[in-house]
Amino acid sequence: xxxxxxxxxxxxxxxxxxxxxxxxxxxxxxxxxxxxxxxxxxxxxxxxxxxxxxxxxxxxxxxxxxxxxxxxxxxxxxxxxxxxxxxxxxxxxxxxxxxxxxxxxxxxxxxxxxxxxxxxxxxxxxxxxxxxxxxxxxxxxxxxxxxxxxxxxxxxxxxxxxxxxxxxxxxxxxxxxxxxxxxxxxxxxxxxxxxxxxxxxxxxxxxxxxxxxxxxxxxxxxxxxxxxxxxxxxxxxxxxxxxxxxxxxxxxxxxxxxxxxxxxxxx
Amino acid sequence: xxxxxxxxxxxxxxxxxxxxxxxxxxxxxxxxxxxxxxxxxxxxxxxxxxxxxxxxxxxxxxxxxxxxxxxxxxxxxxxxxxxxxxxxxxxxxxxxxxxxxxxxxxxxxxxxxxxxxxxxxxxxxxxxxxxxxxxxxxxxxxxxxxxxxxxxxxxxxxxxxxxxxxxxxxxxxxxxxxxxxxxxxxxxxxxxxxxxxxxxxxxxxxxxxxxxxxxxxxxxxxxxxxxxxxxxxxxxxxxxxxxxxxxxxxxxxxxxxxxxxxxxxxx
Lengths: 267, 267
Prior knowledge:
The structure holds two protein chains of two kinds. Chain A has helices at about 5-40, 45-55, 60-85, 90-125, 130-135, 140-180, 185-195, 195-225, 230-260.
């Protein structure tokens, strides 16, 4: 019996597309490195992007962090109380927010808000020939469009993660102190005793890496946009979906690596 | 059917004589997109100060040919020289010196939406390292006066009419004293008066700065008004190359049908 050729061609083609995509991302990374090493960083554009990325994402990151911290506390307190561990809620919520929930949720929100905007902005410029106009004027699109966004994201993302963690912890403190009448000193003591600089560092490092991934993936989708408004829309959707999925996958491996470097519960 | 009537005033400036060196040279240029063969062995030479109009049915590769000259598209086969430099061997970052000599007006003007008219026009100067504010202001004013847009300098592109956008594009193309400007359908979408204003601009640029020009157009009135030579692209090849007078007297039926707007379709 003949082997159905489709069984090999479809996964084969998908794998080749995946390799091509990785190649394009690597080429973009290489151009980014050349742009970075050129020393022309266009600080005014970087500042504008910090306002758009950092300042503009305040609300989503604060609300996400705060309500995640609150609901996590609310759910875990009820269960911990069954075992008589309710005083440890502060420590558990704090470590979870610092190591996982803070950076991952902030990253997902930023991917949705900023990644989509990056892909749409650059994609619109591409299909309206503004990117070609840059090239015609001797300006490399990566230098002008990607590098400022990349630098702004590198600076903004750790702050956004820190903000998300802070508001999550604050909301958690309010829920335990005012919702469950737990003495605030218990909460604070346990939280401070079991949260250390390594936990915070993990959150910041993850934020930095997620920022890099979001910028690379979203700018690539923008620069690859074609076929008018439909192409820009499709590119924007792909930017958010790919950024979010890649972030979640990378987060797992990053957690393994960082937990190896900064083991949990050693303090 | 009315014959296309060349305008009596003004007339295009005389092209350089035969001894002038070639500024742009295309030798056996081939380009294919997927299954569609767009350019099939294009040979063309353009001298300093010459104005060449490229005509031909839509989708025959006129814009593609123009984009080859400025390195936005690489040929599959053939050689392109600009001012003696073999441009299709250059990498993107090596194209900058060529793109200082040759600029391009895009069909939709490709102005940057987030910049005002004066910021758009000043853009090439800033990117090419001019830092003296007074010098920039002087040259922007000069360029905007040349295209009669000085009073609209603070407007954003979205507040401009089609003709004004194209004139802003011309101002941006001439501000850095390019030796050659490529115009991609500068009259498309404009009313007859707006179209005439653009023609006058192009003639003024030729006279004032002796700019070498290539103009892709469907407007036969413009062709007879502004060109020294005309090339007709048909099915990926140059079907006709000669002066506007030779074009009018050509005995090629396809050429005559095109310039007189005759189709074989009967209703």
